[in-house]
Amino acid sequence: MLNGHSNKCRTLVFNNRGCAHSTLLTPRMYSGSNTEDMSLAVNTLTERYPNAPIIIVAVSLGGMITTHYVTSNEASRSNVKAACIVSSPWNSFGTYESINRPINHMVYQRYLLGKLKGIVSNHKHLYQNKRLRSTTVRL
């Protein structure tokens, strides 16, 4: 971001709902296959800066969301000119199967579920009267 700023580029950091200490406004969470939030961000940038090209750099789950977005028809109507995807799962079903193998389950499932539970816990008021009990992340 600092290099972009020094090169007279505008930069934007896009964090998924509830991540990076952001406040959830609805009980809806993020998903690797849902591009609605990214679409809103790109469309807002395009409206504010109609002549500015957009280059997206995305990591991990953000890379999965970006891949879905740039391969959609909607991306072709935006100012997105390039995307760099870093360390992203390409096959969500393969990733799901891999993450449920014994060692991965113990390492990643516990971490991911802990993070999701933390987001829910920090926004309890949105989940009142909902039964939430989970020990795994499932597709």
Order of strands side by side in the largest beta sheet? 1-2
Number of helices: 5
Q: Evaluate the radius of gyration.
A: 17 Å
What assembly state would you assign to the polypeptide chains in this entry? single chain
Q: Structural class of the helices, strands and pairings?
A: mainly alpha
The share of residues in extended strands comes to 5-15%
Notes on the protein architecture:
This protein has 139 residues and is mainly alpha-helical. Helices cover 41% and strands 9% of the residues. It has five helices and two strands, in the order ααβαβαα. Strands 1-2 form a two-stranded parallel sheet. The radius of gyration is 17 Å and the shape is globular. The model has no long low-confidence stretch (mean pLDDT 81).
Give structural attributes:
mainly alpha; 139 residues
Topology summary:
Blueprint (H helix, E strand, L loop, with lengths): L1 H5 L29 H13 L5 E6 L1 H10 L9 E7 L5 H8 L2 H21 L17
Parallel strand pairs: 1-2
Entry summary:
The longest helix has 21 residues, at 102-122. By secondary structure, the chain is mainly alpha-helical. It is globular and about 45 Å long.
